[in-house]
Design goal:
This protein has helices at residues 5-12, 27-39, 51-87, and strands spanning 94-98, 102-106, 112-120, 124-131, 137-146, 149-155, 168-177, 183-184, 186-193, 196-200, 203-208, 211-214, 218-221. The protein is an alpha+beta fold. Strands 1, 2, 3, 4, 5, 6, 7, 8, 9 and 13 form a ten-stranded antiparallel β-sheet that branches. The protein has a three-stranded antiparallel β-sheet with strand order 10-11-12, with no helix packed on it. It starts with a helix and ends with a strand.
Length: 223
């Protein structure tokens, strides 16, 4: 026969008159219920005698999964908080980011200048492609040969046709070709100062030059 409430209370080691039953089932309580079920089985009962045991097993497993999920969530929250705290240490640092736009602006002498960085995976002849904010190519300049590594240079705002472009933000791409005609990886990079760190939906962003960049955009912290 099924185990009644009084028997459950007895095997759990408490009575309802003494205190409110626990809402959680540990391994010891589950084993006591299993023993009680086996001791009180009715051989003439047509119902599955293991039905209650199966249900209790499912309940116990569910509780364990819930506890594990809560534990993992707590660990994740702790790691996020720690990561965010460490990220704030980037404020005031100089970082090198990839894919950042460059600012072309006028100088006091009337000329224009934009600082450009190039990271080159190997020796190559380089073509610099300049695009506006709409993604339109506005200039395509032959820059000559470069050795492997990082290179800094300036752009005076002139196109290959000799036209002066207006001040603003431009995006730089490079085409680099080795002597054997193979393509060499070339990346436009910029050195920026981190003004702030922002947190949005679990994502850490740095604020530099008035723009937001992900931590994945940072390829080097220069000091």
């Amino acid at each position: 026969m099924a185990v009644n409430a009084a028997q459950i209370n007895n095997y759990m080691g408490y009575t309802t008159a003494e205190k409110v039953p626990s809402q959680n089932m540990d391994k010891e309580a589950f084993m006591k219920l299993l023993v009680a079920q086996l001791q009180n089985q009715d051989p003439t009962d047509q119902n599955d005698p293991m039905q209650m045991v199966t249900q209790m097993t499912a309940f116990s497993q569910l509780e364990q999964l819930e506890n594990l999920g809560a534990h993992l969530q707590a660990m994740q929250d702790q790691n996020v908080a720690l990561f965010q705290s460490q990220a704030t240490g980037l404020v005031g640092k100089n970082v090198r980011v990839q894919g950042a736009g460059v600012e072309l602006k006028a100088l006091e002498d009337g000329s224009k200048s934009a600082k450009i960085g190039l990271d080159l995976a190997g020796p190559a002849s380089v073509i610099m492609i300049i695009k506006d904010d709409m993604g339109n190519t506005v200039a395509r300049l032959e820059k000559g040969g470069f050795e492997k590594g990082h290179h800094d240079f300036t752009w005076d705002g002139m196109t290959e046709a000799g036209a002066m472009l207006k001040d603003g933000i431009y995006h730089i791409e490079f085409l680099a070709t080795a002597d054997d005609g193979s393509t060499v990886n070339a990346q436009s990079v910029s050195d920026l100062r981190v003004d702030a760190v922002a947190f949005a939906e679990g994502t850490v962003l740095i604020v530099a030059g008035g723009k937001y960049y992900s931590l994945g955009d940072i390829i080097e912290v220069t000091g």
